[in-house]
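okkk here we go again. third time trying to get the calcium ion bound version out, last two times i messed up the smiles copy paste (missing a bracket lol). double checked this time i swear
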Amino acid sequence: MFTLILLAAVFTVSLGANPHGYTVDQVAALVLHDMDTNGDGQISQDELILELIKKWDSNLDLKVSHEEFVHHWVNTYHDHPDTTNTFFHNLDTDHDNFLTITDILAHIPQIDQNHDSHVTLSEFNVFLHTVHPDGHGHGGNVHPVGK
Ligand SMILES: [Ca+2]
Ligand SMILES: [Ca+2]
Ligand SMILES: [Ca+2]
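finally!!
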């Protein structure tokens, strides 16, 4: 399943990944920009945790619920709710329906490909393509749109 998502993401030319026309590449750039609080062009582990857990956790229980995540992600990046739903479940490594520090730490080795403790745009871009279905439904549950 995971391999299929990866292959679909790699071999698909993405045209208009969400209703506002952002491609996955553009969303990756937006997310990185939002997370990069010290403006060095990279995301540290702390910035990743700060962004997701502190900013997105509306009720301050250190867990980002499915509802909180989808609400925030769709509002911020204008993504399709179905796509966002698949994205959330791919991020939720322990399948407890919450994104926590545990889920983030589980993804860090995969995101930070050269293991320098910082995530660059190209690293984040590759990661997003593997966990986030594009707007044509490849790898996700979004209705395919004809080419
Ligand atoms: Ca940074
Ligand atoms: Ca989880
Ligand atoms: Ca890195």
